[in-house]
Amino acid sequence: MFVRNSWYVAAWSDEVDGRKPLARTIIGEPIVLFRAEDGKAAALEDRCAHRRMPLSLGKIADGGRLVCPYHGLTYDSGGNCVRVPGQDSPGSIRIRSYPVAERAGMVWIWTGPPGKADASGIFDCSWLERPGWHDTRLYRHARANYLLLNDNLADLLHVAFLHIPSGGGNEEMGTAELELTVGDDRFHFTRRTDDIPAPASYGRLSNARRNIDRWHVLDYRGPSFYRVHTGVAETGSGGPDSALPIGGGRWAILPHHFITPETERTTHYFQVVGHEWAPSSETRRFLDDVIDEDVWAIEQQQQALEAEPDIPMQTIASDAPLRAMRKIVTRMLAAERDGQGGATAAASC
Ligand code: FES
Ligand SMILES: [Fe+2]
Question: Is 66 a pocket residue for ligand 1 (Cβ < 6 Å)?
């Protein structure tokens, strides 16, 4: 079950062009993305109205129109059929079009009723547009339900164990000071462990000469968006507000996680990591290692859940943000199903 009334990232902007249509399944719906003649991105259902041929297998004709490869029906960016070969007029043939917007180098689509689309509701990406900042972009196709990825990002205890191989975490991070503030469709969460040895990669990248403070400052908004400020700084220098230079006792990143459900069992995971430092092959490798550890974990969970779906999961203290997130998604699903009704729809997978 998916939240429909949301903007989701459909693609990186440079994946969508006027030369070749792009097929992408989002919340279980086959969608074709392309650019019209005016350069604006467009999203249509990926099924021809005639015999349901996927339009993504067709071509983009002069004028930025999408031509079905089977019998040549041609559509404009609004989903209106503008040509039927062998007929004087296409009549009223049309297919569904999705509202589209571009932000921070990504094409976003609204999957709810088009009349409710309001681009001001797109997850705040303004931190990525700070002058002088850089970003590193990562994408993974995860063979797991999107809620398992949501869980992973809400559950930061995992950093102390799952991310030991990449050097993103260490067991000293297992005990932390936590603070959680929950709103209607969002929560704010901080997790701090002060005065510990640096996890391996953070130690190397920060050049910390003594113990560090390790923090996560996380903002979640439903159904599936996270912004995290995370890093290390030499103990006593101010934690997240430390003024030490990057590589001079401090190292920090600002990952933004844009999670787009593909099917009940698969997820498009877009991640844009904002940072003050210039990218290098070493930092790229570190970020790749971290995301691969996360995706590996949720894919293992997905397999275990599919094998034995009825075995309950135990809750532990550090699951509080995860439980808050699940409640938020459940409320969003219920609100869509019942208008603003209060019936419960379980956000489970
Ligand atoms: S299926 Fe598309 S034109 Fe016939
Ligand atoms: Fe992680």
Answer: no
| 153 Cα to the center of ligand 2, angstroms | 6
Which ligand minimizes its atom distance to the CA of 218?
A: 2
* Closest-lying ligand 1 atom to the alpha carbon of residue 71: 3
**Closest protein CA for atom 1 of ligand 1:** 51
Give me the CATH code for the 7-120 domain, please.
2.102.10.10
At 222, list the tokens. Answer: 């439903």
Pocket probe mutation, ligand 1, options 44, 46, 53, max atoms within 8 Å of Cβ: 53
241: which residues sit within 8 A by CB, 6+ positions away? none
The span from the CA of 45 to the CA of 93, in Å, is 13
Angle CA(162)–CA(167)–CA(170) in degrees, nearest 5?
60
Q: Are 252 and 230 in contact (CB under 8 A)?
A: yes
- What CATH class is the domain 124-336? alpha beta
How far, in Å, CA of 169 to CA of 174, rounded? 9
Closest residue (by CA) to atom 4 of ligand 1? Answer: 71
Judge whether 61 and 55 are in contact, CB under 8 Å: no
> Two tokens at 226?
């996270």
pTM: 0.95
Q: Given ligand 1 and candidates 59, 73, 82, which is best to mutate, with the most ligand atoms within 8 Å of its CB?
A: 73
Ligand 1 lined by 84 (C-beta under 6 Å): no
Domain parsing of the chain, residue ranges? 7-120, 124-336
Most ligand 1 atoms within 8 A of CB, residue of 51, 55, 93 to mutate: 51
Instruction: Looking at the CA of 165, name the nearest ligand.
Output: 2
Query: Tens-digit pLDDT profile for the chain (349 aa)?
Result: 999 999 999 999 999 999 999 999 999 999 999 999 999 999 999 999 999 999 999 999 988 999 999 999 999 999 999 999 999 999 999 999 999 999 999 999 999 999 999 999 999 999 998 899 999 999 999 999 999 999 999 999 999 999 999 999 999 999 999 999 999 999 999 999 999 999 999 999 999 999 999 999 999 999 999 999 999 999 999 999 999 999 999 999 999 999 999 999 999 999 999 999 999 999 999 999 999 999 999 999 999 999 999 999 999 999 999 999 999 999 999 999 987 633 334 455 5
